[in-house]
Structures are given as C-alpha cells and as structure tokens.
C-alpha cells in the first residue's frame, strides 16, 4: 500500500481535468494533490499534480517493482526513491521539487505547500 488512502491530499475519484481545474481555482503556488494515473498502469499508479506560476504540472509517480519503492517522473540515474507515496509528499513539503516544462524547456521549483481538495 502506498499510504495514500487516508491522506487529505489524495483525490481518489479525481481525473486529470478535475485535478487541473481544482488547482487553477486554488491559484496558489505550491498547491498540489495526488490522483490515480489516467493509464491505470501498475508501473505508474499515481500522478502528483502541482500548481506553480499559473501552470499545472502532472508528474507521474512510478512504482519500482524490484525494490517495491516509488519515484517521480521518468527513470534517471541517482533518482530519489521512497518507500511510500506519503514519503514523497512529506519530503517535498520540506525540500523543493523540480518542475520541468517540456514544452518551453524551462525548469522551476517549488515545495508542496497547499493541499487542494477536489469537491
């Protein structure tokens, strides 16, 4: 279990559009929630959705079968791995998360600051 189900930031029945709309409404840098990934893929069970600088970022959360851990984004060498999704959130509430905009090829960073609830 990824440790998500009892958490305020987990929007279990939320799709991508609902998540993005909720974050745009919050309009606060560092607003975030976690939703199930659209693909329902065991290798990528969740998506971290973050609002920063008037943009919404959808960051895949990967499940690494071999170590039974979780990591953010595409696989890279030296990546941070976590024992649960809750640990990812707790870590990035303390340390900045790098946001990569693949369209404009820019990088930003923010901490996870404001939990957004999807109504």
TrEMBL record:
One of its GO terms (biological process) is cell surface receptor protein tyrosine kinase signaling pathway. Keywords: SH2 domain. One of its GO terms (cellular component) is cytoplasm. The keyword Signal does not apply. Residues 9-116 form the SH2 domain. Pfam families: SH2. This is BLNK protein.
